[in-house]
Amino acid sequence: MLAPLAAGITRVRGLLDSDDVRATEQAMRQLGASISVDREGEVSIDGPVDWRPPGTIDCRNSGTTARLLLGLLSGVGLPAILEGDQSLSRRPMDRVVYPLQAMGARVRYLAREGSLPVELEARRSGSLRPLSHRPRVASAQVKSGLLLAGLTAGVRVEVREPAPTRDHTERLLRALGVAVGSEASPAGVPTIRIDPVDRGHRLSLPSVSVPGDFSSAAFLLAACWLGTGAVEVRGVGLNATRTGLLSVADEIGARYEVDRRADAFAGSAELGGPAEEPVGTVRAWPARLRAFEVDGRLLSSLVDEVPVLAVLAARASGVSRIRGAEELRRKESDRLAVLAHNLTAIGVSCRERPDGLDIEGTAEALAGRARPDGDHRIAMAFGALGVSPGCEISIEEPECVSVSYPGFWQDLERIGRSEAA
Q1: Helices of type H across 80-178
Q2: Which of 63, 77, 160, 220 has its CB surrounded by the most CB atoms within 10 Å?
């Protein structure tokens, strides 16, 4: 989404060929972006884009695509309809639509209030209004959508987050040449801000090397810690806003080491903070696990890893407690309910609470059929548990992992062999 704003060709290496990325690529092509892929998988994006009305954009299952596009389209002022699959159409869009409407964007719901599909009307004159927004729920997607609206509309946007969230967008904006302010209150509450870019300022993003996704790597690490075999994950992103699972790993006695080797791309501290993405290798070994407690203070850095925590808790000694996770009821599935149902079905004692789970670990044999309700992270979590010693678990809809990790099942099979995953 950002490369088409830059002048010249941006070359992107390491871009994952997943359903979510394909949905975004198709959307940007509809908007006029020139995108090509060579035989080695390197993506070239030629900018700046000559915007054109896209008609109807299918965001498929990608909440990131939908929420960021809402901001981008509002800032550019193009008419469009955004829709998604059945799962995405249940997920909340009001948290990004409401502040965009406050900026002056004309967005309306076409079916159920607060959900896709939505229609954006063309902006006939003027620009959006500046925005200072305090979201009730910490969300990197909402923050990113609003920053994109401010960038493309040329107005100041300030987002005061209730808790720190992933900062990949801010880092990429700095790499693009946009000054991004980032401040924290004495209580640690962050404020992210961008100001209008001067018309004569040239945005440039010559090359980007995309690091491996830590949230995807987490399922391989979990399989290892559950006793399947040693694993080495290379070239994985080590952004501190994504690696909260490692803090829990320290608490539960998991064995691992981190070797930071490089940064994915360079940037300037003069633009308000770091632009580079830390990258490295994580090595892990099977371990005896003990129970843990996680609350909302840590969850923002491992919100996608709660299914991983749940299956680790199934084999940890004692009762593990997850709290402050009510937001997971509004993901691709009601993750708390689906996790509780599947853990109980395979023989794990689990109590579902309004904002979390209580899970009593067991060393007994576990067997059964996991039903992920189309949720890729649920499928991968029970896949990781299913290949560990003493487990016979089959997964319904295994193909749903293609949303974020098409090669997951092949990589899972490799754990325990001499080759790296």
Answers
A1: 94-103, 140-153, 168-176
A2: 220
